[in-house]
Design goal:
The structure holds two protein chains of two kinds. By secondary structure, chain A is an all-alpha fold. Chain A contains twelve helices and two strands. Chain A has one domain: Orthogonal Bundle (ABC transporter involved in vitamin B12 uptake, BtuC). Chain A has a two-stranded antiparallel ribbon with strand order 1-2. Chain B folds into two domains: about 140 residues, P-loop containing nucleotide triphosphate hydrolases (Rossmann fold), CATH 3.40.50.300; about 70 residues, no CATH class. By secondary structure, chain B is an alpha/beta fold. The longest helix of chain B is centred in the C-terminal third of the chain and has 16 residues. Classes of the chains: A mainly alpha, B alpha/beta. Chains A and B meet through helix 7 and helix 8 of A and helix 2, helix 3 and helix 6 of B. The complex binds adenosine-5'-triphosphate (ATP) and magnesium ion. The site of magnesium ion (MG) has 5 residues of chain B, from helix 1.
């Protein structure tokens, strides 16, 4: 068993114990409460995975902290709204929005990020610049209203198990992320391209030294990250909506996930998403006043135990 | 015929001037030994040849082409292969993945394939599913050599392949280099261990303070006590 996995188990164990103690001694909540909270937590975690997995891969490959990542999420939501307004199809909106924003990411990397090289300050300034640009552009194009991406009727019902209702749209979201996550896992862990990406994460200069064109890898990963975040934005539009300022609201969530899971690792992004999703839901269910605490407490805890994150490299 | 010609190059790290007008040539089909003490700039020269750290002045000609400021991956595609100092295998990749990622798309006659590498290094086949970071130092060195060969190089650079290895393992590595030599490979062997290097090479260059200060056949160097004590600490 790997060191990382043991740390992961330890942390999970501590969290579960804490939660169980709270349950037994403080809250006396019913089992139903826990089942629903865990279900909501997992579905929220699924959304976070779409948002943050790309951010993590981009950092791993390019050592770029992409502060425009929340903008990709927001842009995904807006493009989806336009598709729905013109075609009426929600299912079509998901791939169209993801692809549009993915291509935007490719262009942004190729034309702008490529030029600044490996200077972290210039990278940060450039991605912040893009985030502000996108903020203004979305305001000009879609206006300042709050929108909601209405899910189609066939998802707008809740199968019942015992006394509990499980909203279909959340089940769909979990299913979608299982499919997307599996494809992503096959790509990164099982394909040659994935091995090339991981080699670049391990040692970019050495990767060039065996003939890998790492700048093309960077472009592809940046586009992939934008694609995934935009898909998250479409799905998230049915829960949190689409509105000015959402970009900078989700950005800290993405960073919490990546810091907890470790940068540049798909497993890390999954673990981080689930921890943040579960903690946030359970925490809000137990102590609604302390929502920021439940977001940042696991982050601080992990940073104290393992500063590189659960699955990050040393 | 010269496969590499380095003409009067100056290479820097930021403001620090490391190579001071270095020139050298490497003949096709030969093993060239590049000797010199700690920190004289051997790895810096390798970095310039590979395009990791291109020289600010001077030229590098490889197979008749000026590659002075080409990106590394293109230099590799042209036929420069690297087994770097410290091995630098990709630690989180499996042994097989380390080899596959180096596989050149252009497969030519008599080129290197996974099967041929495994014939050459049976231990790598045994370990092929293991992560590279779990290998011993000697196994990692074999993997680094195998990975360099997978790019199908016309010229293979080996930067201190004996560093940090036990004598028995060094002997194995040397046998491998010998085999490559017999197959007619062109090799640039960078070494601090003079005795080891002299066993193999056809010609030697000695570096000091970022320039080549001496070159001769291995026999001449063996008999030249002055150069050995002045530049090689022997
Ligand atoms: N990345 C770097 N940044 C700044 N200076 C460097 C860097 N790498 C090497 N140097 C300096 O350049 C000089 C030459 O280093 P280089 O690694 O080329 O020597 P070397 O001959 O390969 O030594 P060794 O036998 O120890 O490998 C040294 O003074 C070293 O301190
Ligand atoms: Mg060196």
């Amino acid at each position: 068993m790997s060191q990382q996995f043991r740390t992961f188990l330890k942390v999970t164990l501590v969290l579960v114990l804490l939660a169980a103690l709270l349950q037994i001694f403080v809250f006396q909540k019913s089992l139903d409460f826990w089942v629903i909270q865990v279900f909501y937590g997992i579905s929220y975690g699924a959304l976070l995975f779409l948002l943050a997995s790309g951010l993590s891969l981009i950092f791993g490959v390019m050592r770029i902290v992409n502060l425009a990542h929340g903008s990709f999420f927001l842009l995904g939501g807006y493009v989806a709204l336009t598709v729905i307004w013109t075609t009426g199809s929600w299912l079509l909106a998901i791939p169209v929005a993801a692809l549009t924003v993915g291509v935007l990411g490719l262009i942004m990397e190729r034309i702008f990020l490529r030029q600044v090289g490996f200077d972290p300050l210039r990278q940060v300034l450039l991605t912040v610049g893009f985030a502000l640009l996108f903020q203004q552009a979305t305001l000009d194009i879609w206006g300042g209203d709050n929108f909601f991406i209405n899910i189609p009727d066939y998802l707008n019902w809740s199968p019942r198990v015992g006394d509990l209702f499980f909203p279909m749209n959340r089940i769909f979201m979990i299913g979608l992320v299982v499919v997307v996550g599996t494809l992503l896992w096959l790509l990164i862990e099982k394909s040659r391209l994935g091995a090339v990406i991981r080699a670049t994460v391990d040692d970019a200069e050495m990767a060039r030294g065996i003939g890998i064109d790492t700048s093309r890898i960077s472009m592809a990963v940046f586009g992939l990250g934008a694609f995934l975040a935009a898909m998250g934005g479409v799905i998230g539009g049915g829960f949190i909506g689409v509105f000015p300022g959402l970009d900078f609201e989700v950005l800290p969530l993405a960073f919490a996930v990546v810091i907890i899971g470790g940068m540049g690792s798909l497993r890390g992004a999954l673990a981080g998403s689930m921890i943040v999703g579960l903690m946030d839901n359970i925490g809000k269910g137990l102590y609604p006043e302390l929502s920021y605490f439940t977001l940042y407490a696991p982050m601080v805890l992990i940073l104290a135990i393992k500063p590189t994150g659960l699955f990050g490299r040393e | 015929m010269a496969i590499i010609e380095v003409e009067n190059i100056h290479t820097y790290y930021g403001d620090s001037h490391v190579l001071h007008g270095l020139s050298m040539t490497l003949e096709e089909g030969k093993i060239l030994g590049l000797l010199g003490r700690n920190g004289v700039g051997k790895t810096t020269l390798v970095g310039s040849l590979m395009g990791f750290n291109p020289p600010r002045r001077g030229r590098i000609i490889f197979k008749g082409k000026d590659i002075t400021s080409h990106p590394s991956h293109r230099i590799v595609k042209l036929g420069m292969g690297l087994v770097p100092q410290g091995r630098r295998v990709f630690p989180t990749l499996s042994v097989e993945e380390n080899l596959i990622v180096a596989d050149s798309a252009k497969k030519r006659q008599g080129g290197w394939s996974l099967e041929r590498i495994y014939q050459f290094f049976p231990i790598l086949k045994e370990r092929r599913r293991q992560r590279a970071k779990t290998l011993s130092g000697g196994e990692q060195q074999m993997l680094a050599i195998g990975r360099g060969l997978m790019t199908d190089p016309d010229c293979l650079i080996l930067d201190e392949p004996s560093e940090g290895l036990a004598p028995l393992i060094i002997q194995q590595v040397w046998e491998i280099i010998e085999k490559l030599k017999e197959e007619g490979h062109t090799i640039l062997l960078v070494e601090q261990n003079v005795a080891l290097a002299l066993k193999l090479v056809d010609w030697v260059f000695v570096m000091s303070k970022g320039a080549v200060v001496y070159s001769s056949s291995p026999e001449d160097l063996r008999n030249n006590g002055e150069i050995k004590s002045k530049y090689l600490g022997l």
